[in-house]
Amino acid sequence: MKITRKQLRQIIREAAIATSQGDAGVRNRARQLKSRWDSLDIQNTRRPEADDAAEDFLRGLWDNTESSWAKNKGLTTGGKGDPAGPAWSAATISTIVDDEKVKSIRHSDYRKGGQERRKQWDSADPDAAKNIEWVAFEPDELEPMAGDLRCCKRIGGTHCDICMDAGCTQVVGGNVKDDLYYGAPECEKDMYIASSAEKIEAESDEESDATQGVAEMKITRSRLRQIIKEELNEYGEMKLGKLPTKDSPMSDTGGQYTITNPEQAQSEADHLLDKLTVSQHELQKGYVKTDQWDERDEALLNDLMQKMEIGDYPFSVEWGTRS
Predict the structure, then answer these.
(1) What is the pLDDT of residues 214-261, one digit of tens each?
(2) What pTM, to 2 d.p., does this model score?
(3) N or C: which end of the chain has fewer CB within 10 A?
(4) Residue 172's beta-bridge partner residues?
């Protein structure tokens, strides 16, 4: 039996209220923009943004903000100003997302816009809520997906990046270390802005106490470890380092597996998710551990789901078996 919402709330203070639907198009445009940047003949490794080879690229970012301020400052194409002078991270987001709701020279503008749309999302019925785009959530309220925005506060203002995977462990962002960055987030998150999000139906105490028809919510071991670590660190009750790992070796019998249709893909995704689901028995016995197989299965699941989003069947995925 899987962990229920009520049981999870006994572990964490706040349960997620929304499931992000992500945006594969945004993620793909982020990859393409990063690829364009990497193809530039930039020699200034100390400050890549200041290299002459980056000038036209940066002016293109400012063009996409459609900002009269940027034009008057000479930052856009044909201008005489320094496009690397002002912070260009919001211009990067504007270019990648390509949506009027997320188009500005300041992150604060679409953060505020996301908070306003959150009011609409809160009052909307579930069917209408999932059609409201670019909605702001507190970090613990949403499990982010690729294509969402991860925002944080940093010296001098705010910053947002594009989530590149489920859980937002990898991001693309502009003006990070004077570069167009792809990697682990550089600052502590204080907001997610979801491209679109579906409400998680709340479970009443009466429903959760019933012996039949218990509502289930699946959560991977890595996500549960992350939540517990964040909560314990915040309360200052103890320092939680690396959790113990099993001595379960990887098998050598992995290979390529062909997925021919959406039904088969969903079946394989469900199979992987079942492997990664924390059971009540594991929680009761304290076996909230991971091993190399969890990491392998999470990577396989992410790859499979990304290819499902693209929908170009048949396709091949890496496969592995537990020893």
Answers:
(1) 344 555 555 666 666 555 554 444 333 333 333 333 334 456 778 888
(2) 0.61
(3) N
(4) 162, 182
